[in-house]
C-alpha cells in the first residue's frame, strides 16, 4: 500500500507521462521467506486496483527473460539489491531504465533485514538506554524527521525512463502525504463486511470510544521488543485514559500472539478485570486485512512499528483521533 502511494505521487508529479507498477518479485518463489510470508500481492483482490503494469510493454519472451535474469541474480543474498538487478534485467531485454533507487551492495548502504547485534543495539535493549534514546529523539525531533524526508524523490518529475523502486516513506512525517490524501482514501476502500463476527465488532466499535491496540509481535518482535519491555504501551494507554471518556481497548495482533497478550495485561498498562478490553482474533490468512479495516473504524489507535497498524490508524476518519506510535518520525498525532 505504501508503494502504491509512491505510484500515486509520481503520477501526480508527471500527469503527461506513462507510469507503471512492477511487482515481479511475487513471481520469484525464492523470495517467499521474506516478501511473500503474508498473502502475496493483494491490492487488486482487496481494493480492485488495476494500475498499468510494466509487464504490459514486454513480449512474453522478454518477460520470461527478465524473470529468469532477476532470479539468477539472487539479489536477496546481496543485501536485497533489487534496484540494480531488476534494472539490469530490463536493460538486457532492450528496455532502458535508469535506476534512481541506488545500489544496496554499496558498502555505505544500510543492511537490509540486519539481524546482528552490536553495542548500540545492546545498549538500546536496556531500560536506561531506551530512556536515553527517547530523550534524544524528542530533543532532536526535527533533525530525525528531516532524515526521513524523501519528498524530492517521492514526487520526482522527469521525462526519463526511471526505475524508482520503493522507499516506504509516506508513513513518516514531512513527506507531504496530504497532497495525495484524497487519491489514497478513494482508492483504499475496503469491501463491505459480511460475516457476523466482523459485523458485530463493527457495531461495537461504532457505539463506543474504541481504541485499537495493534500489538504486532511475530515477525517484527525483534524490532518491537523494546516497546513491550520499556513501557511504551503503558505511556500510550495512560494518555488515552486521560483524554478519552470510557475507552474500550480492542486488541489486534498476529494469531500467535493473542494468548500472550491475554496473559500480559500489565505490559499494556491495563487491568482486564476493570478496563473494557476486547480481542479480535478470527481474521486470518486471506481475511487478515479485515483487522486493518476494523482498526480504521476505531476512534483512536495505539500502534507498533508496523505499516499494517499504521494504515489502520491513518485510514481512521475521526477528525479528533489520537493515534500513538513509538517513534517521533512516524506520521501519527502522538509519540511515546
From TrEMBL:
<keyword id="KW-0808">Transferase</keyword>
<dbReference type="InterPro" id="IPR002516">
    <property type="entry name" value="Glyco_trans_11"/>
</dbReference>
<protein>
    <submittedName>
        <fullName>Alpha-1,2-fucosyltransferase</fullName>
    </submittedName>
</protein>
<dbReference type="GO" id="GO:0005975">
    <property type="term" value="P:carbohydrate metabolic process"/>
</dbReference>
<dbReference type="Pfam" id="PF01531">
    <property type="entry name" value="Glyco_transf_11"/>
</dbReference>
<keyword id="KW-0328">Glycosyltransferase</keyword>
<dbReference type="GO" id="GO:0016020">
    <property type="term" value="C:membrane"/>
</dbReference>
<dbReference type="GO" id="GO:0008107">
    <property type="term" value="F:galactoside 2-alpha-L-fucosyltransferase activity"/>
</dbReference>
Amino acid at each position: 500500500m505504501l508503494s502504491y502511494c509512491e505510484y500515486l505521487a509520481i503520477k501526480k508529479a508527471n500527469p503527461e507521462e506513462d507510469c507503471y507498477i512492477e511487482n515481479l518479485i511475487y513471481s520469484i518463489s525464492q523470495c517467499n521467506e521474506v516478501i511473500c510470508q503474508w498473502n502475496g500481492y493483494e491490492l487488486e483482490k482487496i481494493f480492485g486496483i488495476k494500475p498499468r503494469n510494466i509487464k504490459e510493454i514486454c513480449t512474453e519472451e522478454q518477460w520470461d527473460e527478465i524473470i529468469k535474469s532477476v532470479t539468477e541474480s539472487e539479489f536477496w543474498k546481496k543485501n536485497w539489491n533489487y534496484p540494480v538487478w531488476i534494472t539490469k534485467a530490463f536493460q538486457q531485454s532492450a528496455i532502458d531504465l535508469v535506476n534512481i533507487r541506488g545500489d544496496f551492495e554499496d558498502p555505505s548502504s544500510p543492511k537490509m533485514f540486519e539481524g546482528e547485534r552490536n553495542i548500540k543495539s545492546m545498549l538500546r535493549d536496556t531500560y536506561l538506554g531506551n530512556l536515553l534514546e527517547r530523550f534524544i529523539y524528542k530533543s532532536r525531533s526535527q533533525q530525525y524527521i528531516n532524515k526521513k524526508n524523501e519528498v524530492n524523490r517521492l514526487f520526482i518529475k522527469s521525462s526519463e525512463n526511471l526505475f524508482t523502486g520503493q522507499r516506504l516513506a509516506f508513513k513518516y512525517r514531512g513527506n507531504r502525504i496530504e497532497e495525495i490524501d484524497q487519491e489514497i482514501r478513494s482508492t483504499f476502500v475496503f469491501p463491505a463486511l459480511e460475516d457476523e463476527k466482523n459485523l458485530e465488532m463493527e457495531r461495537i466499535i461504532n457505539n463506543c470510544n474504541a481504541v485499537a491496540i495493534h500489538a504486532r509481535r511475530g515477525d517484527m518482535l525483534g524490532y518491537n521488543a523494546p516497546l513491550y519491555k520499556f513501557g511504551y504501551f503503558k505511556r500510550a494507554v495512560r494518555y488515552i485514559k486521560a483524554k478519552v471518556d470510557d475507552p474500550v481497548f480492542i486488541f489486534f495482533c498476529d494469531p500467535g500472539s493473542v494468548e500472550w497478550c491475554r496473559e500480559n495485561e500489565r505490559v499494556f498498562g491495563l487491568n482486564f478485570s476493570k478496563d473494557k478490553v476486547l480481542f479480535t482474533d478470527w481474521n486470518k490468512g486471506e481475511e487478515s486485512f479485515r483487522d486493518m479495516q476494523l482498526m480504521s473504524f476505531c476512534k483512536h489507535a495505539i500502534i507498533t512499528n508496523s505499516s499494517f497498524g499504521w494504515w489502520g490508524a491513518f485510514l481512521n476518519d475521526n477528525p479528533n483521533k489520537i493515534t500513538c506510535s513509538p517513534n517521533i518520525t512516524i506520521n501519527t498525532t502522538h509519540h511515546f
